[in-house]
Amino acid sequence: MTIDLYRSATSAPCATVQLVAAALDLELNLIDLNVTGGDHLKPEFLKINPQHTVPTIVDDGFSVWESRTIARYLANKYGKDSTLYPADVTLRALVDQRLDFDLGTLYTRFAQYIFPQLMGGKADEALGKKLEEAFGVLDAFLEGNTYAVGDHLTIADLSLVSTLSSIEAFGFSYKEYPILTKWYGLVKSSAPQCEELTGKMMSTIREILAARKAKQGS
């Protein structure tokens, strides 16, 4: 059965859902919403998700949103084993911690720094430094681990790599963080369709930024 995914092509959380689906060999019916055009506020979408956010999935009539919740749901329901979302209580706690760090720290600091600039504001150096600090924290988390948690790919890796790919598309580099850089390359090369899916998102973001810059310069 195909699962509907309501998404935006520039959204890191939407890319996360696609990566999880790829890792589980699930088919998604992609439904692109023009958020800037207000597609997410249309009555038909509000019936599915009153919070009107993307990503949102509909699986056999069941709708759920928030990318990390979707990731857990898909792994729990469709995972052939517990590798992507470990059954072991300790390992699962670490995966959840990494997911919470991505949501509450890494992605949040990225949004706080970048989004005001997209609305015409100036870069806040203090917020930029806070984002850089998050890279250092993640670098420390990864020390001694092959993946985000232990030696196996989990949904934590897929969420984090989506966020970091989006951040990279805005011009950031991770060269100062060798452990993070090594992990980032590993996930890109080993997670199913990761290079393709994150690459498409990054290209779309860069195209939009280039068009915005050209318009501002004209």
Automatic annotation (TrEMBL):
<comment type="subunit">
    <text>Homodimer.</text>
</comment>
<dbReference type="Pfam" id="PF00043">
    <property type="entry name" value="GST_C"/>
</dbReference>
<dbReference type="GO" id="GO:0006749">
    <property type="term" value="P:glutathione metabolic process"/>
</dbReference>
<dbReference type="GO" id="GO:0004364">
    <property type="term" value="F:glutathione transferase activity"/>
</dbReference>
<feature type="domain" description="GST N-terminal">
    <location>
        <begin position="1"/>
        <end position="82"/>
    </location>
</feature>
<dbReference type="InterPro" id="IPR010987">
    <property type="entry name" value="Glutathione-S-Trfase_C-like"/>
</dbReference>
<dbReference type="InterPro" id="IPR036282">
    <property type="entry name" value="Glutathione-S-Trfase_C_sf"/>
</dbReference>
<dbReference type="InterPro" id="IPR004046">
    <property type="entry name" value="GST_C"/>
</dbReference>
<dbReference type="InterPro" id="IPR004045">
    <property type="entry name" value="Glutathione_S-Trfase_N"/>
</dbReference>
<feature type="domain" description="GST C-terminal">
    <location>
        <begin position="88"/>
        <end position="217"/>
    </location>
</feature>
<protein>
    <recommendedName>
        <fullName>Glutathione S-transferase</fullName>
    </recommendedName>
</protein>
<dbReference type="InterPro" id="IPR040079">
    <property type="entry name" value="Glutathione_S-Trfase"/>
</dbReference>
<dbReference type="Pfam" id="PF13417">
    <property type="entry name" value="GST_N_3"/>
</dbReference>
<dbReference type="InterPro" id="IPR036249">
    <property type="entry name" value="Thioredoxin-like_sf"/>
</dbReference>
